[in-house]
């Protein structure tokens, strides 16, 4: 017994030390944690390509700024340019010096954004004194045009509160059919044509708001997605109780901006302009970055806390989050299965089958996945029965079951496609070979111990699958493992302790109950 | 875990594996017990009482000659060396010059095909196997006095050569001729010191009689008990395996005979004897150093 105690002591102190240091590191990370919790993160770059320009030709563009709903990190733009604030935002201006045939200008940054729904009060103060510039009529936003005034008056009279008025004006503009018009559309044209793109609709909404006495302005930027594109986007902002609140009349966002809206500038101004006469091309390339909560920190900061962290693997793109998730959670799932087998006493098909099935359930959803898994086992288990009577050798017999499994999966998927049954199409996410072995085992068990025993084992397997699925739902565990992969050592320690457990299994307490009283 | 449970000397699978099987049975020696041919070679070499081996067939080319050699006997058992769950075992008796088994007549070609199937590994989950042909044991009338059908046997657990627990396994009308507890057979406890039967356990309840009749078995003397006890000790000594489940049948003429040796005997015997294995070990002065 002394040897056992020494081993236990050593293992416990190793894990204690591990837990303590990880706890300390985690505390340090949390204390320096940036308060900005982003919903979505993108790597964005503006790419401009210039040719045939003369000295003093210009390119002007705006840079995104931090706000309560977006954060801009790792901003890079051509050196020697100095950002300047103007009435519309923060502007960069590139001026050609001398003649060069070709020039490429790139601005890149990491965007972190959150979706935010503003609560708009029933009635609000309109600060008309300091906001006169947001109430005036302009050539493109014809607030004083009779048609605009008439519509604004009609909306104002029909509605009793500020909120109802802007809601009615918003709804009026939203219902205008949208059309992909690239050129600038003014408010009056949008109203009279009754179709417009984002900029026409936004100008109309600004004009109506201003005509009703609410300070309003255009706001512009990009809708981020995994793509390379040239289209920018324009929406509207109303100043409500001293705060600029967003409204998107093209996509129907009322007092709300989705997390993937990159706001760049405001006011009736293009986010990018250049001298006429030069040959100019551009695109916006953007890529969503998968981010863990911990990884809100810059990698450098995290490395200083946890030099072993796996975030570099993620950042490099060698492994995406899903692949890393599957591989990191595997030992943990195995540990859970070991616990269920040796401490609870569950009997399962295949030692690690429950872990793999739990992974497959991510694709299908829990309930449906359990049904599909049971269906596959039962079908292949039963379909291979006739071949059992032929007295074939074991391995060729397995090949038949494997083929039946593949045929069944493909037929199901094809039927799902043909009859448009989405759930049938997910059959191929299951691990084919291991599932086949389980089906084979199931069918053998029916022969050896009867259907009741075989079903009991199937049920226990499903129980283990459910436990694994629950464990794998814990995103936080995964993030801890990414930042502190040393936890994998803890799994070994726990497995050693579990491997030395000589107490009863839970089911044995029931089995030996007559002797334990 | 489960500290609130008092084990009362009962062993679970975890404890059996870690304290009995792993330290006493080396994996490389498992095949000496698991493989019926190797097992019988060892038994014969040491003169341990067991069914006489008529033939061991390794290759298809030997089938004809071996089967010819077996024609001199009146009853025999054909077994795969590595069969599972009793699969592939064929008991044949000669009646009016013809071989009969499980109520059917077996022509020479049928028997040879069965042997060929065994050799190709059909019953053993592997690509090849050997076929063992041995004498057919005639059960002692003691077994018939409890229940007439099927193949009953004794199971003796030995630890480091010392028999620590035993039971008699009997088939029932529900067990299809098999004596295993989990195949609806019953276990009957044996008092190790007196060699008397104790209680009958059917997997749920205890009684004093076999479930298919009302004759009381409690207190019955096991015939040849001392020989049986000595035979299991002698068998345990010749295997390099410290923890064994030895299956013994009493032959009408020859007395106790070894049927099989198991390296991973089950734990149900504790329920049959109403006693934990650890308690039984602790009761053996020779084993108290464990």
Percent of residues in helices of chain B: 25-40%
The total count of helices of chain B amounts to 9
Number of separate helices of chain A: 17
List the strand order in the largest sheet of chain B: 11-10-9-8-7-12-13
Shape of chain A: elongated
Describe the structure.
The complex is a heterodimer of chains A (517) and B (290). Chain A contains 17 helices and 16 strands. Chain A has helices at residues 2-31, 146-158, 162-174, 187-193, 198-211, 299-305, 311-316, 321-344, 353-364, 366-383, 385-388, 394-418, 432-472, 475-483, 487-499, 506-511, 513-516, and strands at 40-51, 58-63, 70-76, 84-86, 89-95, 102-113, 116-117, 216-223, 227-229, 233-240, 243-248, 253-254, 256-257, 261-266, 272-274, 279-288. In chain A, the strands form four sheets. A five-stranded antiparallel β-sheet of chain A has the order 3-6-1-16-9, with no helix packed on it. In chain A, strands 12-11-10-8-14 form a five-stranded antiparallel β-sheet, with helices on one face. Chain A has a four-stranded antiparallel β-sheet with strand order 4-5-2-15, with no helix packed on it. In chain B, the strands form two sheets. Chain B has a seven-stranded antiparallel β-sheet with strand order 11-10-9-8-7-12-13. A six-stranded antiparallel β-sheet of chain B has the order 1-6-2-3-4-5, with helices on both faces. Chain B has helices at residues 13-24, 30-34, 36-45, 60-70, 108-119, 141-146, 225-238, 268-273, 277-282, and strands at 53-57, 75-80, 90-95, 98-101, 104-106, 131-135, 153-159, 162-170, 186-190, 197-201, 206-207, 243-251, 255-262. The longest helix of chain B is centred in the C-terminal third of the chain and has 14 residues, at 225-238. The chains are: A alpha+beta (517), B alpha+beta (290).
């Amino acid at each position: 017994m002394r040897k056992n105690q020494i081993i236990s002591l050593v293992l416990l102190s190793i894990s204690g030390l591990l837990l303590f240091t990880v706890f300390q590191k985690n505390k340090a990370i949390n204390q320096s944690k940036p308060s900005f919790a982003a919903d979505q993160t993108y790597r964005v770059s503006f790419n401009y390509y210039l040719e045939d320009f003369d000295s003093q030709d210009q390119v002007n563009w705006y840079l995104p700024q931090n706000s309560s709903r977006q954060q801009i990190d790792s901003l890079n733009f051509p050196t020697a340019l100095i950002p300047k604030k103007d009435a519309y935002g923060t502007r960069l201006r590139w001026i050609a010096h001398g003649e060069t045939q070709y020039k490429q200008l790139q601005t890149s940054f990491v965007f972190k954004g959150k979706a935010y729904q503003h609560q708009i009060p029933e009635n609000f103060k309109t600060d008309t004194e300091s906001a006169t510039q947001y109430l005036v009529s302009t050539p493109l936003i014809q607030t004083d045009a009779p048609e605009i005034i008439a519509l604004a008056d009609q909306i104002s009279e029909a509605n009793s509160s500020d909120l109802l008025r802007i809601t009615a004006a918003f709804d009026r503009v939203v219902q205008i059919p949208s059309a992909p018009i690239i050129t600038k559309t003014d408010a009056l044209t949008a109203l009279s044509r009754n179709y417009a793109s984002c900029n026409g609709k936004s100008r109309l909404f600004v004009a109506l708001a201003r005509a009703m006495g609410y300070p309003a302005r255009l706001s512009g930027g990009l809708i981020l997605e995994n793509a390379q594109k040239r289209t920018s986007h324009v929406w509207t902002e109303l100043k409500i109780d001293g705060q600029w609140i967003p409204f998107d009349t093209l996509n129907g966002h009322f007092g709300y901006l989705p997390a993937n809206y990159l706001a760049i500038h405001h006011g009736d101004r293009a986010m990018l302009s250049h001298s006429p006469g030069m040959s100019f091309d551009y695109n916006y390339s953007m890529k969503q970055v998968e981010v863990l909560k911990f990884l809100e920190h810059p990698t450098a900061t995290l490395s200083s806390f946890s030099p072993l962290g796996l975030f570099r693997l993620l950042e490099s793109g060698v492994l995406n989050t899903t692949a890393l998730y599957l591989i990191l959670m595997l030992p943990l799932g195995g540990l859970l299965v070991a616990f269920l087998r040796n401490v609870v006493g569950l009997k399962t098909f295949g030692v690690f089958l429950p872990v793999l099935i739990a992974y497959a359930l991510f694709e299908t959803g829990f309930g449906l996945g359990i049904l599909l898994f049971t269906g596959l086992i039962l079908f292949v288990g039963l379909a291979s029965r006739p071949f059992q009577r032929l007295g074939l050798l074991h391995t060729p017999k397995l090949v038949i079951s494997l083929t039946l499994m593949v045929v069944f999966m493909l037929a199901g998927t094809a039927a799902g496609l043909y009859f448009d049954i989405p759930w049938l199409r997910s059959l191929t996410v299951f691990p084919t070979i291991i599932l086949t072995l389980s089906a084979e085992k199931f069918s053998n068990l029916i022969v050896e111990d009867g259907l009741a025993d075989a079903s009991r084992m199937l049920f226990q397997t499903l129980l283990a699958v459910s436990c694994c699925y629950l464990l794998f739902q814990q995103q936080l565990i995964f993030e801890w493992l990414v930042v502190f992969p040393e936890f994998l050592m803890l799994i070994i320690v726990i497995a050693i302790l579990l491997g030395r457990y000589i107490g009863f299994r839970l089911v044995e307490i029931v089995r030996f109950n007559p002797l334990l009283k | 875990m489960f500290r609130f449970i008092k084990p009362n000397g009962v062993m679970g699978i975890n404890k059996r594996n870690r304290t009995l099987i792993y330290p006493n049975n080396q994996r490389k020696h498992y095949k000496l017990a698991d493989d019926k041919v190797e097992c019988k070679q060892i038994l014969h070499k040491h003169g341990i009482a067991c069914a006489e081996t008529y033939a061991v067939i390794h290759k298809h080319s030997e089938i004809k000659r071996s089967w010819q050699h077996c024609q001199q006997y009146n009853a025999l058992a054909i077994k795969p060396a590595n069969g599972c769950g009793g699969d592939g075992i064929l008991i044949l008796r000669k009646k009016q010059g013809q071989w009969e088994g499980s109520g059917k007549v077996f022509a020479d070609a049928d028997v040879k095909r069965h042997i060929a199937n065994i050799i190709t590994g059909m019953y053993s989950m592997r690509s090849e196997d050997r076929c063992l042909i041995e004498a057919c044991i005639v059960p002692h009338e003691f077994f018939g006095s409890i229940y007439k059908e099927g193949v009953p046997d004794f199971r003796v657990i030995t630890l480091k050569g010392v028999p620590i627990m035993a039971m008699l396994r009997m088939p029932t009308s529900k067990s299809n001729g098999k004596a295993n507890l989990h195949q609806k057979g019953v276990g009957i406890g044996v008092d190790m010191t007196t060699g008397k039967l104790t209680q009958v356990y059917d997997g749920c309840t205890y009684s004093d009689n076999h479930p298919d009749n009302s004759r009381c078995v409690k207190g019955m003397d096991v015939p040849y008990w001392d020989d049986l006890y000595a035979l299991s000790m002698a068998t345990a000594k010749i295997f390099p395996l410290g923890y064994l489940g030895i299956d013994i049948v009493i032959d009408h003429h020859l007395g106790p005979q070894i049927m099989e040796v198991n390296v991973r005997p089950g734990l149900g015997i504790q329920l049959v004897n109403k006693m934990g294995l650890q308690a039984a070990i602790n009761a053996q002065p020779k084993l108290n150093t464990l």
